[in-house]
Design goal:
The structure is a homodimer of 203-residue chains. Chain A has 203 residues and is of the alpha+beta class. Helix content of chain A is 29%, strand content 18%. Chain A has a single domain, classed as 3-Layer(aba) Sandwich (NADH Oxidase). In chain A, a hairpin with an 8-residue loop joins strand 3 (99-100) and strand 4. The longest helix of chain A has 18 residues, at 114-131. The first copy, chain A, is globular. The relative contact order of chain A is 0.23. Strand 1 (58-64) of chain A pairs parallel with strand 7 (194-196) of chain B, so a sheet runs across the interface.
Chain lengths: 203, 203
């Protein structure tokens, strides 16, 4: 990696599984197809994420590069994201369902943590991608107003993020102005994130 | 596990890393302390989760069983959850921050995916727990109205979930009426979760 990428700026303060620091979000993809077995293994991993009352509120609308729905999904991404996401192998819209019918009930109940649960599924998908040698990059910059209509999403669902999936490409193949950002990001110190007993974070 | 737990109902349709199916959410904890090195490795893993613009909007307020803040955190859980969560080694409130000051800006911008990003951190924490032999269980049933005041959480943050962390205990030590639920949950068929090109899920 060192020949292609800048020095990895990631240092951990506690020992953790390498999967957490090896996962990052490149923009350089090769444009190659993703095999179905790998793609569906990503959805499979997401399926086992934890969720409130096992409600499993995640849904994935996917399109293969050049295939059914590709232009619609790519077209939803902001212009700056389209510049690199156009070379992903697959684009996915991650949806969450906002209600759930509990065991024994007949009427749906609101799911307060539908977005959080979708985030757990997204992380599972991203880790399984590392496991099979693929890269992922979540896209928050997309046309949120028009996404439901473009994708045929009914009331009761939220389009959370787009996800680019593919084989990681060479940094040098990216548009020049994007190349500088093409490296694993660092994190704030761990002490910024935990507090004992009550809130005492400096913000 | 088979001597202590019912038959594991988890079957995958595609091959995935065992970490996804090995992680589940038991209610039986031993009440033993969690070592600091293990506890902080869980927050460390969460720290490397992906987030919009690397905003890292997750915060963790923790309490050790019997230690500073324990009664407040346990007291926030609904009565039914307190029955088993009282034997966790650590309780955590996961918060998300709703705004972020982007690079080069001086004013904060709303983070639309703060809950989703917190969910990615929660999943990372849960997977790292499996890695160090601990169990986790997210608690959505807690006093959401009073949690901010009890924990001293200011405006601009959301208390997302509580998380019980600890060493997994024997099913038989749980209150009898909870024992039947003490097993890994299955999932709906994978085909329920993905669609090509546009929304066509049956709901």
């Amino acid at each position: 990696m060192s020949a292609v990428y800048p020095i990895n700026p990631r240092k951990t303060e506690y020992e953790i599984s390498p999967i957490f620091v090896n996962r990052w979000s490149p923009r350089a993809f090769t444009g190659e197809p993703v095999e179905d077995a790998a793609l569906f293994s990503l959805f499979e991993a997401a399926r086992w994420a934890p969720s409130a009352n096992n409600s499993q509120p995640w849904r994935f609308i996917y399109a293969k590069n050049g295939g059914t729905g590709w232009d619609k999904l790519l077209g939803l991404a902001n212009e700056n994201n389209r510049r690199w996401a156009s070379r992903a192998g697959v684009l996915v819209a991650l949806l969450s369902k906002k209600t759930h019918i509990r065991n024994g009930d007949t009427e749906p109940t609101p799911l307060r943590n539908h977005s959080l649960d979708a985030g757990a599924a997204w992380a599972s998908l991203a880790f399984q991608a590392v496991h099979v040698g693929l890269a992922t990059h979540a896209i928050g910059g997309f046309d949120r107003d028009n996404a439901p209509a473009v994708l045929g999403v009914p009331e009761g669902f939220q389009v959370e993020i787009l996800i680019a999936i593919g084989k990681q490409g060479e940094r040098a193949a990216l548009p020049e102005d994007i190349q500088a950002r093409e490296q694993p990001t660092p994190r704030k110190p761990l002490a910024n994130f935990y507090a004992e007993g009550q809130f005492n974070f400096k913000e």
